[in-house]
TrEMBL record:
<protein>
    <recommendedName>
        <fullName>Thiamine-binding protein domain-containing protein</fullName>
    </recommendedName>
</protein>
<comment type="similarity">
    <text>Belongs to the UPF0045 family.</text>
</comment>
<dbReference type="GO" id="GO:0005829">
    <property type="term" value="C:cytosol"/>
</dbReference>
<dbReference type="InterPro" id="IPR029756">
    <property type="entry name" value="MTH1187/YkoF-like"/>
</dbReference>
<dbReference type="InterPro" id="IPR051614">
    <property type="entry name" value="UPF0045_domain"/>
</dbReference>
<dbReference type="InterPro" id="IPR002767">
    <property type="entry name" value="Thiamine_BP"/>
</dbReference>
<dbReference type="Pfam" id="PF01910">
    <property type="entry name" value="Thiamine_BP"/>
</dbReference>
<feature type="domain" description="Thiamine-binding protein">
    <location>
        <begin position="5"/>
        <end position="96"/>
    </location>
</feature>
Length: 98
């Protein structure tokens, strides 16, 4: 695993219920990729190949629009280490899970 991303998708929506539904569709897409991911209260972390992760980031925007958002913003954090492994989600968070 050479990269990890954290993505916070912020679709515009008419109400909170619509917003949650759109975000749920984005998360379902992330789950369908088969990559290791973890959903948090503000963002979702995903691990994998850099190019594949960048495509997932792109598709998250498209899926939010297809799910009904007239526009979408996203905040993205990227860790990339082409010569080796990045620190995994598990190593970063396991001791803090309860």
């Amino acid at each position: 695993m050479e990269a990890s991303v954290a993505i916070q998708v912020l679709p515009s929506a008419k109400d909170e219920e619509s917003l949650i539904g759109i975000v749920d569709e984005v998360i379902a897409y992330i789950a369908s990729t088969g990559l290791n991911y973890q959903v948090g209260a503000f963002e979702t972390s995903i691990e994998g190949d850099y190019d594949e992760l960048m495509e997932i980031v792109k598709q998250c925007q498209i899926i939010a629009i297809k799910a009904g958002a007239p526009s979408v913003s996203a905040y993205i954090k990227v860790v990339y280490k082409p010569e080796g492994e990045v620190l995994s989600i598990e190593k970063k968070t396991k001791k803090h899970q309860h």
